[in-house]
Amino acid sequence: MIPDDHPRAASLMTREKLVDGFKRNIVVAEGLIAHGRGEAFDYLLGEKTTEMAESAVRAAAALLLISKNAVLSVNGNAAALCAKEIVELADITGAKIEVNLFYRTEERERAIKAELERHGARQVLGVGEKASARIPELSSERRRVDPEGILVADTVFVPLEDGDRTEALAKMGKSVITVDLNPLSRTARAANITIVDNLVRVMPALVQKVSALKGKD
Ligand code: ATP
């Protein structure tokens, strides 16, 4: 039980969501460590959205709307923290959802797919045999993508991604949007649009911004 008036309530609740995701096989232990790095940067940024991040959210919303074939790439941490908003963003932009994991197991892919479906996702790509295509330049299981999803996407939204894959997607000519609290990471530097903010604040803001811009010239 985390009291609402606890000074670190929001941060503690975010941790609880990840721990819960860990127990349900959605998040891996390494994901908890990655979150710790994010928390440290968030602390330094005052745990609030900067004007620069707001501009980046606006640019990301516009790019998602003008893309012909956008894909939202989902890993364990993103599913544990924001499954509801990911589904909302897909619905409102028409983007596809693809599970894309650094530590890939089919069991975890299925757990993440189920979590997204629990929040209303109608189609989830990238699970099991469906991830049969390869990203050139990457080795191991990390290069597997869905031939109907990331492989043919013009824009890929990859929150909390690792640098190698972000660089590889950019080299494939895709427009890459990321969310990363560390502005120095390779991901943050390789993406076309980098939102330096906490994913838990970004997702609701992105859904809201897309709603505001939708239908505009
Ligand atoms: P890179 O490979 O891009 O140089 P890295 O190896 O430092 O990055 P990873 O461990 O692959 O990073 O991924 C964790 C990244 O995600 C970190 O940069 C961390 O700051 C960021 N991060 C973690 N949790 C969040 C969150 N909730 N919101 C935004 N960013 C986050």
Plain-language structure description:
The chain is α/β, with parallel strands linked by helices. The protein is 49% helix and 11% strand. The chain has 8 helices and 7 strands. The chain has helices spanning 9-23, 29-44, 51-66, 76-93, 106-118, 163-171, 186-190, 199-213, and strands at 70-74, 96-99, 133-134, 144-145, 155-157, 175-179, 193-195. Helix 6 (163-171) links the parallel strand 5 and strand 6. Helix 4 crosses helix 5 (106-118) and helix 4 (76-93) runs parallel beside helix 8. The radius of gyration is 16 Å and the shape is globular. The N and C termini lie far apart (47 Å). The model has no long low-confidence stretch (mean pLDDT 95). It binds adenosine-5'-triphosphate (ATP). Adenosine-5'-triphosphate binds at residues 34-35, 37-38, 41, 160, 162-163, 179-182, 185-187, 198-199.
Summarize the structure.
The protein contains eight helices and seven strands; from the N terminus they run αααβαβαβββαβαβα. With 217 residues, the chain is an alpha/beta fold. The longest helix is centred in the middle third of the chain and has 18 residues, at 76-93.
Bound molecules: adenosine-5'-triphosphate
Shape: globular
The overall pLDDT average reads 95
Strand content: 5-15%
Sequence of secondary-structure elements: HHHEHEHEEEHEHEH
Oligomer: single chain
Structural class: alpha/beta
Cα distance, first to last residue?
Answer: 47 Å
Largest sheet: 5 strands, parallel
Q: How many beta-strand segments?
A: 7
Q: So how many helices?
A: 8
The residue ranges in which pLDDT falls below 50 over 5 or more consecutive positions are none
- Strand order in the sheet with the most strands: 2-1-5-6-7
What percent of residues adopt helix (DSSP H or I)? Answer: 40-55%
Radius of gyration: 16 Å
